[in-house]
Write a structure and sequence with these properties.
The structure is a homodimer. By secondary structure, chain A is α+β, with helices and mostly antiparallel strands. Chain A contains eight helices and ten strands. The longest helix of chain A is centred in the C-terminal third of the chain and has 26 residues. The relative contact order of chain A is 0.14. Strand 10 of chain A pairs antiparallel with strand 10 of chain B.
Protein backbone atom coordinates (compact mmCIF):
# COMPACT_ATOMS: atom_id res chain seq x y z
CA UNK A 1 0.00 0.00 0.00
CA UNK A 2 3.00 2.24 0.52
CA UNK A 3 4.13 1.60 -3.05
CA UNK A 4 0.62 2.25 -4.33
CA UNK A 5 0.42 5.57 -2.46
CA UNK A 6 3.88 6.75 -3.55
CA UNK A 7 3.13 6.06 -7.20
CA UNK A 8 -0.32 7.66 -7.11
CA UNK A 9 1.05 10.77 -5.35
CA UNK A 10 3.74 11.20 -8.01
CA UNK A 11 1.25 10.75 -10.85
CA UNK A 12 -1.19 13.20 -9.30
CA UNK A 13 1.57 15.77 -8.83
CA UNK A 14 2.68 15.38 -12.43
CA UNK A 15 -0.87 15.54 -13.76
CA UNK A 16 -1.56 18.76 -11.86
CA UNK A 17 -5.29 18.61 -12.56
CA UNK A 18 -6.81 15.15 -12.03
CA UNK A 19 -7.27 13.60 -8.57
CA UNK A 20 -7.25 9.93 -7.64
CA UNK A 21 -10.51 8.54 -6.36
CA UNK A 22 -9.81 6.14 -3.46
CA UNK A 23 -12.10 3.13 -3.40
CA UNK A 24 -11.69 0.55 -0.65
CA UNK A 25 -13.52 -2.69 -1.23
CA UNK A 26 -14.12 -6.01 0.48
CA UNK A 27 -15.21 -9.32 -0.89
CA UNK A 28 -17.34 -11.28 1.53
CA UNK A 29 -16.92 -14.78 2.86
CA UNK A 30 -19.00 -17.12 0.72
CA UNK A 31 -17.73 -15.64 -2.52
CA UNK A 32 -15.11 -17.65 -4.38
CA UNK A 33 -12.34 -15.39 -3.10
CA UNK A 34 -12.34 -13.42 0.13
CA UNK A 35 -10.28 -10.34 0.49
CA UNK A 36 -9.96 -6.67 0.23
CA UNK A 37 -8.29 -4.02 -1.75
CA UNK A 38 -7.89 -0.39 -2.49
CA UNK A 39 -8.40 0.91 -5.99
CA UNK A 40 -7.02 4.33 -6.87
CA UNK A 41 -8.27 5.77 -10.11
CA UNK A 42 -7.78 9.09 -11.85
CA UNK A 43 -9.93 9.88 -14.87
CA UNK A 44 -10.02 12.93 -17.09
CA UNK A 45 -6.70 14.38 -15.95
CA UNK A 46 -4.61 16.88 -17.87
CA UNK A 47 -1.87 14.34 -18.62
CA UNK A 48 -3.64 11.06 -17.86
CA UNK A 49 -6.95 10.27 -19.47
CA UNK A 50 -7.30 7.23 -17.20
CA UNK A 51 -4.79 5.98 -14.64
CA UNK A 52 -5.51 3.15 -12.22
CA UNK A 53 -3.42 1.61 -9.44
CA UNK A 54 -4.90 -1.31 -7.57
CA UNK A 55 -3.80 -3.02 -4.39
CA UNK A 56 -5.44 -6.25 -3.29
CA UNK A 57 -4.95 -9.10 -0.87
CA UNK A 58 -7.12 -12.16 -1.26
CA UNK A 59 -7.42 -15.47 0.56
CA UNK A 60 -8.65 -18.71 -0.87
CA UNK A 61 -9.33 -22.13 0.60
CA UNK A 62 -7.75 -24.09 -2.20
CA UNK A 63 -5.01 -23.14 -4.65
CA UNK A 64 -6.41 -23.43 -8.18
CA UNK A 65 -4.73 -26.07 -10.37
CA UNK A 66 -3.34 -23.40 -12.72
CA UNK A 67 -1.25 -22.03 -9.85
CA UNK A 68 0.31 -25.33 -8.83
CA UNK A 69 1.33 -26.98 -12.07
CA UNK A 70 4.97 -26.76 -11.01
CA UNK A 71 4.23 -27.50 -7.37
CA UNK A 72 1.87 -30.46 -7.25
CA UNK A 73 2.58 -30.96 -3.53
CA UNK A 74 0.74 -27.67 -2.83
CA UNK A 75 -2.40 -28.52 -4.82
CA UNK A 76 -5.50 -27.56 -2.89
CA UNK A 77 -3.63 -25.77 -0.07
CA UNK A 78 -5.06 -22.56 1.42
CA UNK A 79 -3.37 -19.52 -0.08
CA UNK A 80 -2.98 -15.77 0.00
CA UNK A 81 -2.26 -13.56 -2.98
CA UNK A 82 -1.23 -9.92 -2.71
CA UNK A 83 -0.26 -7.43 -5.33
CA UNK A 84 -0.12 -3.98 -6.83
CA UNK A 85 -1.16 -3.52 -10.44
CA UNK A 86 -1.28 -0.40 -12.56
CA UNK A 87 -1.98 0.85 -16.05
CA UNK A 88 -1.71 4.52 -17.05
CA UNK A 89 -3.35 5.74 -20.26
CA UNK A 90 -2.11 9.26 -21.11
CA UNK A 91 -4.12 11.70 -23.18
CA UNK A 92 -1.26 12.93 -25.39
CA UNK A 93 -0.55 10.22 -27.99
CA UNK A 94 3.18 10.99 -27.78
CA UNK A 95 3.20 9.76 -24.18
CA UNK A 96 3.28 5.96 -23.90
CA UNK A 97 0.98 3.77 -21.84
CA UNK A 98 2.67 1.88 -19.03
CA UNK A 99 1.75 -1.27 -17.11
CA UNK A 100 3.34 -2.57 -13.91
CA UNK A 101 2.45 -5.45 -11.62
CA UNK A 102 4.11 -6.91 -8.53
CA UNK A 103 2.53 -9.87 -6.76
CA UNK A 104 3.23 -12.47 -4.13
CA UNK A 105 1.52 -15.81 -3.79
CA UNK A 106 1.77 -17.70 -0.53
CA UNK A 107 0.58 -21.29 -0.17
CA UNK A 108 -0.02 -22.29 3.42
CA UNK A 109 -0.55 -26.06 3.62
CA UNK A 110 -1.64 -27.32 7.03
CA UNK A 111 1.24 -28.69 9.10
CA UNK A 112 4.07 -27.47 6.89
CA UNK A 113 5.93 -24.25 6.18
CA UNK A 114 4.31 -21.71 3.86
CA UNK A 115 5.78 -21.55 0.37
CA UNK A 116 6.03 -18.16 -1.30
CA UNK A 117 6.67 -17.10 -4.82
CA UNK A 118 6.68 -13.86 -6.74
CA UNK A 119 5.78 -12.48 -10.10
CA UNK A 120 5.44 -9.23 -11.93
CA UNK A 121 7.17 -6.80 -14.21
CA UNK A 122 6.60 -3.64 -16.17
CA UNK A 123 6.25 -2.88 -19.85
CA UNK A 124 5.78 0.17 -22.05
CA UNK A 125 3.33 0.67 -24.92
CA UNK A 126 4.16 3.74 -27.01
CA UNK A 127 2.01 5.11 -29.82
CA UNK A 128 4.99 6.78 -31.46
CA UNK A 129 8.48 5.32 -31.31
CA UNK A 130 11.40 7.17 -29.74
CA UNK A 131 14.59 5.19 -29.36
CA UNK A 132 15.68 7.26 -26.37
CA UNK A 133 12.51 6.35 -24.47
CA UNK A 134 12.91 2.64 -25.17
CA UNK A 135 16.55 2.72 -24.10
CA UNK A 136 15.74 4.64 -20.92
CA UNK A 137 12.90 2.30 -19.95
CA UNK A 138 14.92 -0.85 -20.54
CA UNK A 139 18.07 0.54 -18.90
CA UNK A 140 16.05 1.35 -15.78
CA UNK A 141 14.64 -2.18 -15.70
CA UNK A 142 18.12 -3.61 -16.16
CA UNK A 143 19.63 -1.45 -13.42
CA UNK A 144 16.82 -2.26 -10.98
CA UNK A 145 17.50 -5.98 -11.42
CA UNK A 146 21.32 -5.79 -11.54
CA UNK A 147 21.84 -6.36 -7.75
CA UNK A 148 20.10 -9.73 -8.12
CA UNK A 149 22.33 -11.21 -10.78
CA UNK A 150 23.28 -10.33 -14.34
CA UNK A 151 21.02 -13.03 -15.76
CA UNK A 152 17.77 -11.51 -14.44
CA UNK A 153 17.29 -8.66 -16.91
CA UNK A 154 17.99 -10.68 -20.08
CA UNK A 155 15.77 -13.56 -18.91
CA UNK A 156 12.92 -11.33 -17.80
CA UNK A 157 13.20 -9.13 -20.90
CA UNK A 158 12.81 -12.15 -23.16
CA UNK A 159 9.92 -13.44 -21.04
CA UNK A 160 8.22 -10.06 -21.41
CA UNK A 161 8.64 -10.05 -25.20
CA UNK A 162 7.09 -13.50 -25.37
CA UNK A 163 4.23 -12.78 -22.98
CA UNK A 164 2.98 -9.40 -24.23
CA UNK A 165 2.49 -10.53 -27.79
CA UNK A 166 -0.75 -10.28 -29.77
CA UNK A 167 -0.44 -13.55 -31.65
CA UNK A 168 -3.58 -12.94 -33.72
CA UNK A 169 -1.92 -9.73 -35.01
CA UNK A 170 1.65 -11.09 -35.18
CA UNK A 171 2.64 -7.97 -33.32
CA UNK A 172 4.05 -7.10 -29.90
CA UNK A 173 1.77 -5.15 -27.56
CA UNK A 174 4.51 -2.60 -26.95
CA UNK A 175 8.29 -2.32 -26.66
CA UNK A 176 8.46 -4.73 -23.72
CA UNK A 177 10.28 -4.38 -20.45
CA UNK A 178 10.52 -7.20 -17.91
CA UNK A 179 8.16 -9.99 -16.86
CA UNK A 180 8.62 -12.95 -14.55
CA UNK A 181 6.42 -15.45 -12.78
CA UNK A 182 6.76 -18.29 -10.26
CA UNK A 183 9.95 -16.71 -8.96
CA UNK A 184 11.50 -18.15 -5.78
CA UNK A 185 15.13 -18.66 -6.77
CA UNK A 186 17.02 -16.45 -4.36
CA UNK A 187 15.49 -17.31 -0.98
CA UNK A 188 12.59 -15.45 0.61
CA UNK A 189 14.24 -12.14 1.60
CA UNK A 190 16.09 -11.68 -1.68
CA UNK A 191 13.10 -12.72 -3.77
CA UNK A 192 11.03 -10.08 -2.05
CA UNK A 193 13.83 -7.51 -2.44
CA UNK A 194 13.83 -8.19 -6.20
CA UNK A 195 10.07 -7.68 -6.31
CA UNK A 196 10.40 -4.37 -4.42
CA UNK A 197 13.14 -3.26 -6.83
CA UNK A 198 10.73 -3.76 -9.73
CA UNK A 199 7.96 -1.84 -7.97
CA UNK A 200 10.32 0.97 -7.00
CA UNK A 201 11.65 1.09 -10.55
CA UNK A 202 8.35 2.16 -12.11
CA UNK A 203 8.54 5.88 -11.43
CA UNK A 204 12.19 6.34 -12.52
CA UNK A 205 11.51 4.23 -15.61
CA UNK A 206 8.36 6.06 -16.66
CA UNK A 207 8.19 9.62 -15.35
CA UNK A 208 11.16 11.01 -17.32
CA UNK A 209 9.53 9.73 -20.52
CA UNK A 210 6.22 11.39 -19.65
CA UNK A 211 7.98 14.67 -18.86
CA UNK A 212 9.87 14.55 -22.15
CA UNK A 213 6.73 13.97 -24.29
CA UNK A 214 3.76 15.54 -22.50
CA UNK A 215 4.11 18.99 -24.04
CA UNK A 216 4.45 17.75 -27.62
CA UNK A 217 1.64 19.14 -29.78
CA UNK A 218 -0.78 16.63 -31.24
CA UNK A 219 -4.00 16.62 -33.21
CA UNK A 220 -6.72 14.47 -34.70
CA UNK A 221 -4.30 12.32 -36.69
CA UNK A 222 -2.32 11.32 -33.61
CA UNK A 223 -5.52 10.82 -31.62
CA UNK A 224 -7.04 8.44 -34.17
CA UNK A 225 -3.82 6.45 -34.31
CA UNK A 226 -3.77 6.23 -30.51
CA UNK A 227 -7.41 5.05 -30.40
CA UNK A 228 -6.70 2.26 -32.89
CA UNK A 229 -3.62 1.17 -30.97
CA UNK A 230 -5.65 1.13 -27.77
CA UNK A 231 -7.99 -1.31 -29.51
CA UNK A 232 -5.02 -3.68 -29.75
CA UNK A 233 -4.37 -3.12 -26.05
CA UNK A 234 -7.94 -4.21 -25.30
CA UNK A 235 -7.51 -7.24 -27.52
CA UNK A 236 -4.37 -8.33 -25.70
CA UNK A 237 -5.84 -7.86 -22.25
CA UNK A 238 -9.13 -9.65 -22.89
CA UNK A 239 -7.92 -12.40 -25.22
CA UNK A 240 -4.38 -13.25 -24.10
CA UNK A 241 -3.65 -11.88 -20.64
CA UNK A 242 -4.12 -14.76 -18.23
CA UNK A 243 -4.65 -12.53 -15.20
CA UNK A 244 -7.44 -10.58 -16.88
CA UNK A 245 -9.12 -13.41 -18.73
CA UNK A 246 -9.18 -15.91 -15.88
CA UNK A 247 -9.78 -13.17 -13.31
CA UNK A 248 -13.01 -12.25 -15.08
CA UNK A 249 -14.01 -15.87 -15.62
CA UNK A 250 -13.30 -16.93 -12.02
CA UNK A 251 -15.21 -14.28 -10.13
CA UNK A 252 -12.55 -11.63 -9.47
CA UNK A 253 -13.60 -8.02 -8.91
CA UNK A 254 -14.49 -6.82 -12.40
CA UNK A 255 -13.92 -3.10 -11.97
CA UNK A 256 -10.49 -3.65 -10.43
CA UNK A 257 -9.43 -6.13 -13.09
CA UNK A 258 -10.60 -3.76 -15.84
CA UNK A 259 -8.58 -0.81 -14.53
CA UNK A 260 -6.35 -1.70 -17.45
CA UNK A 261 -8.97 -0.80 -20.08
CA UNK A 262 -8.35 2.39 -22.04
CA UNK A 263 -10.90 5.19 -21.63
CA UNK A 264 -11.71 5.09 -25.35
CA UNK A 265 -10.69 2.71 -28.14
CA UNK A 266 -11.42 2.41 -31.84
CA UNK A 267 -11.71 -0.41 -34.34
CA UNK A 268 -11.90 -0.13 -38.10
CA UNK A 269 -11.47 -2.68 -40.85
CA UNK A 270 -7.92 -3.39 -42.00
CA UNK A 271 -6.65 -0.22 -40.37
CA UNK A 272 -3.09 0.32 -41.60
CA UNK A 273 -0.97 3.43 -41.27
CA UNK A 274 0.38 5.00 -44.47
CA UNK A 275 3.70 3.65 -45.70
CA UNK A 276 6.66 5.63 -44.44
CA UNK A 277 4.62 7.40 -41.75
CA UNK A 278 5.66 7.56 -38.07
CA UNK A 279 2.57 5.46 -37.34
CA UNK A 280 3.85 2.72 -39.66
CA UNK A 281 7.32 3.02 -38.13
CA UNK A 282 5.84 2.21 -34.73
CA UNK A 283 4.62 -1.17 -35.97
CA UNK A 284 7.63 -1.97 -38.13
CA UNK A 285 10.49 -0.78 -35.92
CA UNK A 286 9.14 -0.80 -32.36
CA UNK A 287 6.49 -3.48 -32.02
CA UNK A 288 9.06 -6.18 -32.68
CA UNK A 289 11.33 -7.58 -29.98
CA UNK A 290 14.65 -5.71 -30.00
CA UNK A 291 17.73 -5.47 -27.80
CA UNK A 292 17.33 -1.95 -26.42
CA UNK A 293 20.26 -2.00 -24.02
CA UNK B 1 -23.39 -15.64 -50.49
CA UNK B 2 -26.88 -14.87 -51.71
CA UNK B 3 -28.03 -14.22 -48.16
CA UNK B 4 -24.97 -12.04 -47.53
CA UNK B 5 -25.66 -9.99 -50.66
CA UNK B 6 -29.38 -9.57 -49.94
CA UNK B 7 -28.71 -8.34 -46.43
CA UNK B 8 -25.92 -5.96 -47.46
CA UNK B 9 -28.04 -4.50 -50.26
CA UNK B 10 -30.91 -3.81 -47.87
CA UNK B 11 -28.61 -2.20 -45.31
CA UNK B 12 -26.92 -0.05 -47.94
CA UNK B 13 -30.30 1.09 -49.27
CA UNK B 14 -31.48 1.98 -45.78
CA UNK B 15 -28.26 3.79 -44.92
CA UNK B 16 -28.42 5.89 -48.08
CA UNK B 17 -24.89 7.21 -47.63
CA UNK B 18 -22.36 4.49 -46.72
CA UNK B 19 -21.20 1.83 -49.18
CA UNK B 20 -20.06 -1.70 -48.43
CA UNK B 21 -16.45 -2.45 -49.21
CA UNK B 22 -16.18 -5.95 -50.75
CA UNK B 23 -13.09 -7.83 -49.65
CA UNK B 24 -12.49 -11.33 -50.98
CA UNK B 25 -9.82 -13.27 -49.17
CA UNK B 26 -8.10 -16.63 -49.31
CA UNK B 27 -6.19 -18.52 -46.71
CA UNK B 28 -3.39 -20.55 -48.20
CA UNK B 29 -2.63 -24.23 -47.84
CA UNK B 30 -0.10 -24.66 -45.07
CA UNK B 31 -1.99 -22.38 -42.72
CA UNK B 32 -3.99 -24.09 -39.99
CA UNK B 33 -7.21 -23.57 -41.91
CA UNK B 34 -7.59 -23.30 -45.66
CA UNK B 35 -10.45 -21.49 -47.16
CA UNK B 36 -11.90 -18.37 -48.52
CA UNK B 37 -14.41 -15.77 -47.76
CA UNK B 38 -15.96 -12.49 -48.64
CA UNK B 39 -16.11 -9.72 -46.10
CA UNK B 40 -18.53 -6.86 -46.67
CA UNK B 41 -18.02 -3.86 -44.48
CA UNK B 42 -19.61 -0.44 -44.33
CA UNK B 43 -18.00 2.19 -42.11
CA UNK B 44 -19.00 5.77 -41.44
CA UNK B 45 -22.52 5.51 -42.85
CA UNK B 46 -25.39 7.84 -42.05
CA UNK B 47 -27.28 5.17 -40.09
CA UNK B 48 -24.56 2.58 -39.48
CA UNK B 49 -21.28 3.60 -37.93
CA UNK B 50 -19.88 0.16 -38.69
CA UNK B 51 -21.69 -2.78 -40.25
CA UNK B 52 -19.98 -6.01 -41.24
CA UNK B 53 -21.31 -9.15 -42.93
CA UNK B 54 -18.87 -11.97 -43.45
CA UNK B 55 -19.18 -15.14 -45.50
CA UNK B 56 -16.56 -17.85 -45.19
CA UNK B 57 -16.00 -21.47 -46.10
CA UNK B 58 -13.02 -23.23 -44.58
CA UNK B 59 -11.60 -26.74 -44.80
CA UNK B 60 -9.55 -28.49 -42.19
CA UNK B 61 -7.76 -31.81 -42.09
CA UNK B 62 -8.86 -32.74 -38.61
CA UNK B 63 -11.93 -31.69 -36.61
CA UNK B 64 -10.74 -29.99 -33.43
CA UNK B 65 -11.68 -31.79 -30.18
CA UNK B 66 -13.99 -28.92 -29.12
CA UNK B 67 -16.18 -29.65 -32.15
CA UNK B 68 -16.58 -33.37 -31.53
CA UNK B 69 -17.30 -33.67 -27.82
CA UNK B 70 -20.74 -35.04 -28.61
CA UNK B 71 -19.57 -37.00 -31.61
CA UNK B 72 -16.41 -38.88 -30.59
CA UNK B 73 -16.67 -41.12 -33.67
CA UNK B 74 -15.88 -38.09 -35.85
CA UNK B 75 -12.79 -36.99 -33.94
CA UNK B 76 -9.99 -36.07 -36.31
CA UNK B 77 -12.11 -36.33 -39.48
CA UNK B 78 -11.62 -33.83 -42.32
CA UNK B 79 -14.26 -31.12 -42.17
CA UNK B 80 -15.77 -28.10 -43.83
CA UNK B 81 -17.34 -25.14 -42.07
CA UNK B 82 -19.40 -22.51 -43.84
CA UNK B 83 -21.27 -19.54 -42.50
CA UNK B 84 -22.56 -16.01 -42.63
CA UNK B 85 -21.96 -13.75 -39.67
CA UNK B 86 -22.94 -10.14 -39.12
CA UNK B 87 -22.89 -7.37 -36.58
CA UNK B 88 -24.35 -3.90 -37.25
CA UNK B 89 -23.39 -0.98 -35.01
CA UNK B 90 -25.68 1.99 -35.68
CA UNK B 91 -24.67 5.57 -35.02
CA UNK B 92 -27.91 6.71 -33.36
CA UNK B 93 -27.95 5.32 -29.79
CA UNK B 94 -31.70 4.77 -30.05
CA UNK B 95 -31.09 2.15 -32.76
CA UNK B 96 -30.00 -1.23 -31.36
CA UNK B 97 -27.02 -3.27 -32.43
CA UNK B 98 -27.84 -6.61 -34.00
CA UNK B 99 -25.89 -9.84 -34.44
CA UNK B 100 -26.77 -12.81 -36.63
CA UNK B 101 -24.90 -15.97 -37.50
CA UNK B 102 -25.80 -19.06 -39.53
CA UNK B 103 -23.29 -21.85 -39.95
CA UNK B 104 -22.96 -25.39 -41.13
CA UNK B 105 -20.29 -27.86 -40.11
CA UNK B 106 -19.73 -30.95 -42.19
CA UNK B 107 -17.47 -33.78 -41.05
CA UNK B 108 -16.35 -36.01 -43.87
CA UNK B 109 -14.71 -39.13 -42.46
CA UNK B 110 -13.05 -41.35 -45.05
CA UNK B 111 -15.20 -44.28 -46.11
CA UNK B 112 -18.42 -43.16 -44.45
CA UNK B 113 -21.22 -40.69 -45.07
CA UNK B 114 -20.61 -37.05 -44.22
CA UNK B 115 -22.30 -35.82 -41.04
CA UNK B 116 -23.71 -32.29 -40.99
CA UNK B 117 -24.90 -30.07 -38.25
CA UNK B 118 -26.01 -26.49 -37.95
CA UNK B 119 -25.81 -23.59 -35.57
CA UNK B 120 -26.61 -19.93 -35.38
CA UNK B 121 -29.14 -17.42 -34.25
CA UNK B 122 -29.71 -13.71 -33.91
CA UNK B 123 -29.85 -11.36 -30.95
CA UNK B 124 -30.51 -7.70 -30.33
CA UNK B 125 -28.53 -5.29 -28.14
CA UNK B 126 -30.39 -2.03 -27.54
CA UNK B 127 -28.95 1.01 -25.75
CA UNK B 128 -32.42 2.22 -24.80
CA UNK B 129 -35.26 -0.13 -24.04
CA UNK B 130 -38.50 -0.13 -26.04
CA UNK B 131 -40.91 -2.93 -25.29
CA UNK B 132 -42.37 -2.80 -28.79
CA UNK B 133 -38.95 -3.43 -30.34
CA UNK B 134 -38.25 -6.40 -28.09
CA UNK B 135 -41.66 -7.91 -28.82
CA UNK B 136 -41.24 -7.41 -32.56
CA UNK B 137 -37.76 -8.96 -32.63
CA UNK B 138 -38.77 -11.99 -30.59
CA UNK B 139 -42.07 -12.48 -32.44
CA UNK B 140 -40.18 -12.52 -35.75
CA UNK B 141 -37.77 -15.12 -34.40
CA UNK B 142 -40.67 -17.20 -33.10
CA UNK B 143 -42.57 -17.01 -36.38
CA UNK B 144 -39.49 -17.91 -38.42
CA UNK B 145 -39.02 -21.07 -36.37
CA UNK B 146 -42.72 -22.02 -36.09
CA UNK B 147 -42.76 -24.30 -39.18
CA UNK B 148 -40.10 -26.47 -37.54
CA UNK B 149 -41.97 -27.24 -34.34
CA UNK B 150 -43.38 -25.26 -31.45
CA UNK B 151 -40.52 -26.24 -29.17
CA UNK B 152 -37.81 -24.54 -31.25
CA UNK B 153 -38.40 -20.90 -30.30
CA UNK B 154 -38.66 -21.47 -26.52
CA UNK B 155 -35.60 -23.72 -26.48
CA UNK B 156 -33.47 -21.46 -28.67
CA UNK B 157 -34.65 -18.33 -26.81
CA UNK B 158 -33.50 -19.80 -23.49
CA UNK B 159 -30.22 -20.94 -25.05
CA UNK B 160 -29.66 -17.39 -26.30
CA UNK B 161 -30.33 -15.86 -22.87
CA UNK B 162 -27.81 -18.25 -21.34
CA UNK B 163 -25.16 -17.82 -24.00
CA UNK B 164 -25.09 -14.03 -24.45
CA UNK B 165 -24.54 -13.30 -20.79
CA UNK B 166 -21.68 -11.26 -19.33
CA UNK B 167 -21.11 -13.33 -16.23
CA UNK B 168 -18.45 -10.96 -14.86
CA UNK B 169 -21.08 -8.18 -14.95
CA UNK B 170 -24.09 -10.34 -13.97
CA UNK B 171 -25.83 -8.78 -16.92
CA UNK B 172 -27.21 -9.95 -20.26
CA UNK B 173 -25.48 -8.61 -23.38
CA UNK B 174 -28.80 -7.54 -24.83
CA UNK B 175 -32.45 -8.58 -24.94
CA UNK B 176 -31.68 -11.93 -26.51
CA UNK B 177 -33.28 -13.61 -29.48
CA UNK B 178 -32.48 -17.18 -30.52
CA UNK B 179 -29.31 -19.27 -30.41
CA UNK B 180 -28.67 -22.92 -31.18
CA UNK B 181 -25.71 -25.14 -31.85
CA UNK B 182 -25.00 -28.74 -32.85
CA UNK B 183 -28.40 -28.94 -34.48
CA UNK B 184 -29.22 -32.01 -36.59
CA UNK B 185 -32.58 -33.13 -35.23
CA UNK B 186 -34.88 -32.89 -38.23
CA UNK B 187 -32.93 -34.61 -40.99
CA UNK B 188 -30.61 -32.84 -43.43
CA UNK B 189 -33.09 -30.94 -45.62
CA UNK B 190 -35.24 -29.71 -42.76
CA UNK B 191 -32.23 -28.77 -40.64
CA UNK B 192 -30.95 -26.64 -43.48
CA UNK B 193 -34.41 -25.14 -44.04
CA UNK B 194 -34.50 -24.11 -40.38
CA UNK B 195 -31.09 -22.47 -40.78
CA UNK B 196 -32.27 -20.59 -43.86
CA UNK B 197 -35.37 -19.44 -42.00
CA UNK B 198 -33.14 -17.86 -39.34
CA UNK B 199 -30.97 -16.15 -41.96
CA UNK B 200 -33.99 -14.91 -43.88
CA UNK B 201 -35.54 -13.68 -40.64
CA UNK B 202 -32.85 -11.10 -39.95
CA UNK B 203 -34.12 -8.29 -42.16
CA UNK B 204 -37.80 -8.53 -41.11
CA UNK B 205 -36.72 -8.78 -37.46
CA UNK B 206 -34.35 -5.82 -37.54
CA UNK B 207 -35.19 -3.31 -40.28
CA UNK B 208 -38.57 -2.17 -38.89
CA UNK B 209 -36.85 -1.38 -35.58
CA UNK B 210 -34.14 0.65 -37.31
CA UNK B 211 -36.76 2.55 -39.32
CA UNK B 212 -38.74 3.31 -36.18
CA UNK B 213 -35.74 4.70 -34.23
CA UNK B 214 -33.27 6.15 -36.72
CA UNK B 215 -34.76 9.65 -36.80
CA UNK B 216 -34.95 10.06 -33.02
CA UNK B 217 -32.83 13.01 -31.89
CA UNK B 218 -29.88 12.22 -29.66
CA UNK B 219 -26.95 14.06 -28.12
CA UNK B 220 -23.83 13.68 -26.03
CA UNK B 221 -25.63 11.99 -23.14
CA UNK B 222 -26.99 9.21 -25.34
CA UNK B 223 -23.65 8.90 -27.14
CA UNK B 224 -21.66 8.43 -23.94
CA UNK B 225 -24.13 5.82 -22.72
CA UNK B 226 -23.86 4.00 -26.04
CA UNK B 227 -20.03 4.03 -25.89
CA UNK B 228 -20.02 2.52 -22.40
CA UNK B 229 -22.50 -0.16 -23.42
CA UNK B 230 -20.32 -0.96 -26.43
CA UNK B 231 -17.48 -1.57 -23.95
CA UNK B 232 -19.62 -4.38 -22.52
CA UNK B 233 -20.13 -5.70 -26.04
CA UNK B 234 -16.36 -5.87 -26.51
CA UNK B 235 -16.00 -7.62 -23.16
CA UNK B 236 -18.53 -10.27 -24.11
CA UNK B 237 -17.04 -10.92 -27.51
CA UNK B 238 -13.41 -11.17 -26.40
CA UNK B 239 -13.89 -12.88 -23.04
CA UNK B 240 -16.93 -15.15 -23.41
CA UNK B 241 -17.78 -15.68 -27.07
CA UNK B 242 -16.28 -19.02 -28.02
CA UNK B 243 -16.24 -18.29 -31.75
CA UNK B 244 -14.31 -15.07 -31.27
CA UNK B 245 -11.98 -16.16 -28.50
CA UNK B 246 -10.97 -19.48 -29.99
CA UNK B 247 -11.04 -18.10 -33.52
CA UNK B 248 -8.37 -15.57 -32.56
CA UNK B 249 -6.37 -18.11 -30.59
CA UNK B 250 -6.48 -20.76 -33.30
CA UNK B 251 -5.35 -18.76 -36.29
CA UNK B 252 -8.61 -17.59 -37.84
CA UNK B 253 -8.66 -14.46 -39.99
CA UNK B 254 -8.43 -11.67 -37.43
CA UNK B 255 -10.08 -8.86 -39.39
CA UNK B 256 -13.05 -11.05 -40.29
CA UNK B 257 -13.51 -12.31 -36.74
CA UNK B 258 -13.31 -8.77 -35.38
CA UNK B 259 -16.02 -7.44 -37.71
CA UNK B 260 -18.07 -7.60 -34.53
CA UNK B 261 -16.05 -4.92 -32.73
CA UNK B 262 -17.75 -1.55 -32.33
CA UNK B 263 -16.13 1.43 -34.07
CA UNK B 264 -15.60 3.20 -30.75
CA UNK B 265 -16.03 2.07 -27.14
CA UNK B 266 -15.52 3.63 -23.74
CA UNK B 267 -14.57 2.40 -20.28
CA UNK B 268 -14.75 4.31 -17.03
CA UNK B 269 -14.58 3.21 -13.43
CA UNK B 270 -17.83 2.03 -11.85
CA UNK B 271 -19.85 3.63 -14.61
CA UNK B 272 -23.49 3.56 -13.47
CA UNK B 273 -26.43 5.42 -14.98
CA UNK B 274 -28.39 7.73 -12.65
CA UNK B 275 -31.25 6.12 -10.74
CA UNK B 276 -34.56 6.36 -12.50
CA UNK B 277 -32.97 7.32 -15.85
CA UNK B 278 -33.74 5.55 -19.15
CA UNK B 279 -30.11 4.37 -19.12
CA UNK B 280 -30.66 2.67 -15.75
CA UNK B 281 -33.95 1.20 -17.00
CA UNK B 282 -32.06 -0.50 -19.81
CA UNK B 283 -29.96 -2.46 -17.33
CA UNK B 284 -32.72 -3.12 -14.82
CA UNK B 285 -35.66 -3.92 -17.12
CA UNK B 286 -34.12 -5.07 -20.39
CA UNK B 287 -30.76 -6.70 -19.73
CA UNK B 288 -32.42 -9.48 -17.78
CA UNK B 289 -33.98 -12.52 -19.46
CA UNK B 290 -37.71 -11.93 -20.00
CA UNK B 291 -40.55 -13.62 -21.86
CA UNK B 292 -41.15 -11.10 -24.66
CA UNK B 293 -43.72 -13.08 -26.60
Amino acid sequence: MGLQTRIADAIEALDGHGRFLHDEWHKQAGEKLRGQGRTLILEGGAVFERAGVGFSVVNGDRLPPAATQRRPELAGAPFRAMGVSLVFHPLNPYVPTVHMNVRMLSAEPEGSEPARWFGGGMDLTPYYGFDADCVHFHATCRDALAPFGDDKYPRFKKWCDEYFYNRHRSEARGIGGVFFDDFAELGGEQDFALLRAVGDGLLPAYLPIVQRRMAMPWGERERQHQLHRRGRYVEFNLVWDRGTHFGLQSGGRTESILLSMPPLARWSYQHRPAKGSPEAALVERYLVPRAWV
